[in-house]
Write a structure and sequence with these properties.
This protein is of the alpha+beta class and 181 residues long. It has a single domain, classed as Alpha-Beta Complex (Peptide Deformylase), CATH 3.90.45.10. It is built from three helices and eight strands; from the N terminus they run αβββββββαβα. It is globular. The protein binds nickel (II) ion. The site of nickel (II) ion has 5 residues, from loops.
Length: 181
């Protein structure tokens, strides 16, 4: 396994629509290796989610792993390492919830983004089995953020008030009150 380089905003792969994995690829040794690399990369960079396009592999694959507990961004729910292959999102409640988001492909910045607060995700497991999972609140945002990468979208595309795109250090220094209005 290996830590791969995470490409940054401006790299054209981050703006492509990624292709689905084929049945032959699912369960293959190559996919197992790629997932090992993605896990190593996520741990090395210290993130909570990574989509394959972020390591310049334009395929519909993402992983999420959240240790949970108290962090400098508040109390976070936990999610064990979960793999999403060819995922689809269904919005169960379009009412939005807003969070400060960051992205390993947009280092140093944070932006306040509102997204639907309750979703259902259908995807395949590494073994090619269908699974569906519901996510609320912060986890719903994390899922939508990661799966956006498969459609060539970044969180900054969803910021409605550009005064809410800031450097992480300044956000920590001057506070992270949710913007009003
Ligand atoms: Ni991201």
């Amino acid at each position: 396994m290996a830590v791969r380089k995470i490409i940054r905003m401006g790299h054209p792969t981050l703006r492509q629509v990624a292709r689905p994995l084929t049945p032959d690829e699912i369960g293959s040794l190559e996919l197992a290796r790629l997932l090992g690399d993605m896990t190593d990369t996520l741990h090395d960079y210290g993130g909570i989610g990574l989509a394959a396009p972020q390591i310049n592999e334009p395929i519909r694959l993402a992983i999420i792993e959240i240790a949970g507990g108290q962090t400098r961004y508040g109390e976070l729910p936990s999610l064990p390492l979960t793999v999403f292959i060819n995922p689809e999102i269904e919005v169960l409640d379009p009412t939005v919830a807003g969070y400060w988001e960051g992205c390993l492909s947009v280092p140093g910045l944070r932006g306040f983004v509102e997204r639907p607060r309750h979703i259902l995700v259908r995807a395949l497991t590494v073994e090619g089995v269908n699974h569906s999972m519901e996510f609320d609140g912060f986890l719903a945002t994390v899922l939508q953020h990661e799966l956006d990468h498969l459609d060539g979208k970044l969180y900054i595309d969803h910021i409605s008030d550009m005064t809410q795109l800031v450097f992480e250090e300044e956000l920590e220094r001057y506070g992270q009150d949710e913007p009003t209005g």
